[in-house]
User: Which sequence fits this backbone?
């Protein structure tokens, strides 16, 4: 049995937990054995808050070995892989240390707080020979997988325009310190930047308008244009100051020479220019399940993590950093190397 340890038991830690449990129930030869969080005693009886619901409100952790400290967990457990669901500023150091000790690592997005650290993670994964996968979950989200397939197959010709968006109310705690999270533009908007980069390749340059609303949190609202030589018009917007009953939303509209594809967060609608529109069947599985399924398949069967290479996740972070630079200069175009 392949043994996994989970580090961080906040919102995404629980989301990871849910899906490791489900993967095990679905017959995967893996078992989550240990959970580590400095606040584990307090958290194990508490609800977590996030953009989406986790499977349970309160978790029964009596079947797991619980730790408050990562070193303690590593000294006492024989693990094959670790899932990191800790605040972003801790990702790089923890991931590199785990890889160097011979563990496979699944690490939440954003890959690191700074792209230079993300590059170190790429190098450490290479030198260690262990797998590193970043949880850029949209790459495994059925509504976005469908779009990837339309772009890659060229079934509607070239993309001419694309609009990607997400928004919610503000998160809490460390998220609101830009030094720790990178703010909304790095924490939340990176999902769309990563998707744009994944679909269309690295843009030549970016122009971003950003707005700070909450003290110390960086850009809480942002809108970016991504420049591509072929002239397609690609824009993305994010806002985490949508308070009250707003909740959370995400989606896209992409137009092609031969039709458009629209996703409202739950349903994909395809509108060919010369035929009636239709709703394609997409997998009902959650992207969070599919990404862990893919990661575990890669580590257990020693396959490459092609859908989300560490290099590509680091590149998405570099694009976000260029967007932050552009926002600092009121939308000046910033070129990408
Ligand atoms: N993929 C997604 O859609 C998605 C959604 C939300 C958050 N995230 C990312 O997941 C990561 C975690 O976010 P979250 O929402 O779970 O945050 P959170 O604040 O809810 O949880 C973080 C947890 O890490 C714990 N922690 C802090 N230091 C630790 C340490 N040294 N060792 C072990 N645990 C430690 C904290 O006590 C806390 O319980 C962030 O990088 C965030 O950007 C991804």
Assistant:
């Amino acid at each position: 049995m392949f043994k996994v340890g989970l580090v961080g038991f906040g919102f995404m830690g629980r989301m990871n937990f849910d899906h490791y449990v489900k993967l095990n129930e679905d017959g995967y030869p893996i078992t989550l054995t240990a959970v580590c969080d400095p606040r584990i005693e307090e958290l194990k009886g508490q609800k977590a808050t996030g953009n989406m619901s986790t499977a349970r409100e309160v978790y029964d952790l009596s079947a797991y070995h619980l730790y408050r400290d990562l070193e303690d967990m590593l000294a006492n457990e024989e693990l094959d892989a670790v899932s990191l669901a800790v605040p972003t500023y801790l990702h790089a150091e923890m991931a590199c240390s785990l890889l160097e000790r011979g563990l496979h690592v699944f690490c939440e997005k954003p890959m690191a707080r700074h792209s230079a650290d993300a590059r170190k993670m790429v190098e450490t994964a290479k030198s260690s020979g262990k797998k590193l996968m970043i949880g850029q979950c949209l790459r495994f989200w059925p509504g976005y997988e469908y779009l990837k397939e339309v772009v890659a197959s060229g079934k509607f010709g070239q993309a001419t325009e694309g609009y990607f968006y997400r928004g919610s109310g503000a998160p809490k705690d460390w998220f609101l310190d830009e030094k720790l999270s990178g703010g909304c533009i790095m924490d939340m908007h990176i999902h769309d930047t990563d998707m744009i980069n994944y679909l269309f390749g690295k843009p030549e340059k970016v122009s971003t308008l950003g707005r700070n609303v909450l003290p110390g949190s960086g850009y809480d609202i942002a809108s970016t244009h991504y420049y591509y030589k072929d002239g397609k018009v690609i824009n993305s917007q994010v806002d985490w100051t949508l308070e009250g009953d707003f909740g959370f939303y995400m989606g896209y509209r992409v137009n092609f020479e031969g039709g458009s594809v629209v996703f409202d967060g739950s349903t994909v609608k395809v509108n060919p220019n010369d035929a009636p529109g239709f709703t394609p069947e997409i997998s009902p599985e959650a992207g969070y399940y599919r990404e862990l399924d893919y990661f575990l398949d890669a580590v257990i069967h020693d396959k490459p993590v092609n859908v989300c290479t560490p290099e590509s996740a680091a590149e998405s972070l570099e694009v976000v950093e260029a967007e932050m630079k552009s926002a600092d200069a009121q939308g000046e175009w910033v070129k990408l190397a």
DSSP finds eleven helices and 14 strands in the chain. The mean pLDDT is 96.
